[in-house]
Amino acid sequence: MMTDNSTVLNIAELFGExxxxxxxxxxxxxxxxxxxxxTLLDDIRRAIDGDTQYYLGSLVVAGRGSEQNxxxxxxxxxxxxxxxxxxxxxxxxHGDDDKAADTLAAWSMxxxxxxxxxxxxALLEQLHAGGKPDHPKDIGAQDGPSDQEEIEMMRRPLIGxxxxxxxxxxxxxxxxxxxxxxxxxxxxxxxxxxxTNLNRYFEIMNTRGVQLRPQDIVxxxxxxxxxxxxxxxxxxxxxxxxxxMDHYMQCLATPDERTRWFGxxxxxxxxxxxxxxVRATASGDDDSGDGSVRPFDEVLNDALSKxxxxxxxxxxxxxxxxxxxxxxxxxxxxxxxxxHVLRIYGGDEHVPLDDTALLSxxxxxxxxISDEVSESSAASVGGxxxxxxxxxxxxxxxxxxxxxxxYIIKTHIDSAAPSDATEWMLPRYHRDKQxxxxxxxxxxxxxxxxxxxxxxxxxxxxGNNYKSALCRMLEWLWGQETVDGCAFLQHIREYAHERLEGxxxxxxLKDAPPEERQSCIREAVNRGAGTEHLIFNxxxxxxxxxxxxxxxxxxxxxxxVASIFGADEPPMIASDxxxxxxxxxxxxxxxxxxxxxxxxxxxxxxYRNSVEHFSPQHPLGGxxxxxxxxxFGNLCLLTVRENSRRxxxxxxxxxxxxxxxxxxxxxxxxxxxxxxxQAWGESQIEGQTKLWVRLLDALSSASHxx
Length: 706
Fold this sequence. Notes:
Elements: E1 6-10, H1 11-16, E2 20-23, H2 34-49, E3 54-67, E4 70-77, H3 79-92, H4 98-106, E5 110-113, H5 117-130, H6 147-170, H7 178-184, E6 185-191, H8 198-205, H9 214-224, H10 229-243, H11 249-252, H12 255-262, H13 296-304, H14 323-326, H15 334-346, H16 358-367, H17 375-379, H18 386-407, E7 410-411, E8 424-425, E9 427-432, E10 435-440, H19 444-460, H20 468-478, H21 485-504, H22 514-525, H23 533-550, H24 561-564, H25 572-589, E11 610-613, E12 635-638, H26 640-646, H27 651-657, H28 665-677, H29 682-700
Parallel strand pairs: 2-4, 2-5, 3-6
Antiparallel strand pairs: 1-6, 3-4, 7-8, 9-10, 11-12
Helix pairs in contact: 2-6, 3-5, 3-6, 5-6, 9-10, 9-13, 9-16, 10-18, 15-16, 15-18, 19-21, 19-23, 20-21, 22-29, 23-25, 25-28
C-alpha cells in the first residue's frame, strides 16, 4: 500500500534517521519464531547475493510528534519485521570488521514496546549497545514465582529470535553481507494521515482486497483469459477450494463438485480432462464461450469484491459436521504451494520454490503460450492457447492439491500446543460405509515410517519456501497412476540418502576406503553450531527405525533393520547401537528420576532448531570447556526455548532438568553414556563421535531397495 506520505528507506536510512518506533500497547509482543525469521533471512540473503534490490514491504506508522528532538512513530503494521531487522542488525553490527563498527556508530534508531516496556526496554538497548544478550535465569530452578521471573519469561521471544539469527549466520552458506544489507534492502514507510481513525483503519486493512496479494492477481489472470462463464466459474471454484490449505478440499466443495471432481466416493484422483471438471450453467452453457474474454481489471475487481464462496455443507444427514475433524494445519502456505504446482505444470526443475517469484513465473509458464507444453497434454484441456493453459493449470492445481491432501503430512489443530510439540498425521478424506471422514492413507507399518521421514524433512526445511523434499514427493506422486506405500517410502528413502550424502560431502567418495569416508564425515559433523541440521535429523530418523525394527513386534515384508541400510543383513554397527541402547535403557530404568528414562517410542520430530552443546562452551560455574566441545559427540538439537534456558548448565545438570524421553534420540544416547560412566568429558565425547561417524558411514552407503 502506497500513500501520499510514503517514503522508501533502505536499511541504512531506516536505522540512521534517529527516529523512535513505538509499538503501542494494544499490539501483541514479538511473536516471530524460527520459520518466519528464516524465511525473511533467506529472502534477504538470496536478493543481496544476486546483487538485486529487495523490498521488505510496508511499515505502516502514525506520527506522534517528537520527544527530545526525536521523531516518534507509532507502529501500526510491520512490527514483527521491524523487530527482526533490529535483531539482525544487533547480530551483524558487533562483528570485528570496520563495516560493523561504522554501522553501529551510525545506528540512531530506537525501538520501544509499550506493552513490554520494562522487560524489553533494557534488553533492546543491550542488544544495540553490546550485541549478545544475557541468558535468562533457569526458571525451572527457581523456588517460586517472582517479578524477575516474569520479566525473564517475557524476554525469551526476543532472545530466542536473536539466537535463531545468530545460529543461521554461523553457517558459511548463510552469511549476509552487511554493506549490501544496508544499501540493497529497503522498506516502504507509510505514514497515515493525521486524525486517522485507527480502529476503522484496522477494520479496512483486514478486509479482503485492500492489500492486493500476488495470488489474487494470478487468480484474476487465469479467469480473464477464458471465454465462457462456466469456465470462469469453474476456475474460480477450483481456486477457492484449493487456496484454503487448512481444510480438506471435499469439505469446501459443493455436493456437485465433490462427485464431479472426486467421484462418488469423494476420494478419487481428479481428472485432467477439462470437460469432466467444468460446471454447466443454468442456461445450458457447457463451456462453449462466444470467443470474448473479460478485461483483466474487471475480473480482478469482481474477484476482490467478495469473499470466496464457502460451500454449503450438504453432507448426508447421517454425517455430523465436525469442523475440527475436517481441518488440519498445513506445512506450507498457498502461494508457496503454487510454486510447486508451477514446477510440475511446466515440467521445469529450474522453477524456483520461492513465492516472491510467483507472478513472474506464472506469466512465463501459464499466461504466455509456452513451447514446452506438448500438443497432446494441452489438447485435453482445450488446446495450446492462453485459454488452454489457464484450464490446464487449474486442472493441475486441483490434482496437485488432492495429492497433497492425501499423501503429505499435516499437523493437528491445537492452538494451545506450542510449535515444538507438534503432532504429525497422514490422513485422507474417504468414504467409510455411509459416512465421509478422515482415515489412514497407508497400512500401519508404512504409515508410521512415512510420517517419521516426512516430518524429518519438515523440521529440517522449516521455512515456507524452498521445500525441496516436498517438491520431490509431489513430483513423484504426480507420475503415479496408483500410489503404493512401499514404493513411496522407497522413493523418499532414496532422496533422503542423496541429501545425507551431500551434507556429509561423500558424493565423490562412494567407492573410497572407509578411513577416507569417515575422515570426510568427521569434517562435516564436527562443526559445532555450524553442523547441518539435516545430519542430526537424519540420524534421529535412522535411530528410530533401527530401534523400532529391531524389537520383536511383527513387521510387514521389507521393513526390518537391514532395510534401513539397504542391505540383506544389517552391518555390525547396527548391533552395536542396539546393544548400547539396551544397556542405557536398563540403567536409566533403575534410576529414581523418571525424567531420565530413555524411550524411543515417545520420539517425535519437533522443531528442534538450536544446536546444543551437551558439555557447554561456557560452563555456568566457570572453568574451561573440553577441547573437543564442538565435536559431533557433544552436539544435539533442542528447541530454541529449551536451549536459551539451560545452555550453560553442565551435562549432568542438563540431565536433571530435561524430560529426557521427550528429547532427540541422539540426546538420549548421550544421556545414557553419561549415566553409565557418571561423567561427561573428552573421552565420552570422542566415543560418541566415533559411534555416530561409523553409523553415518553405513547409512550413507545404503541403496534402499525395499
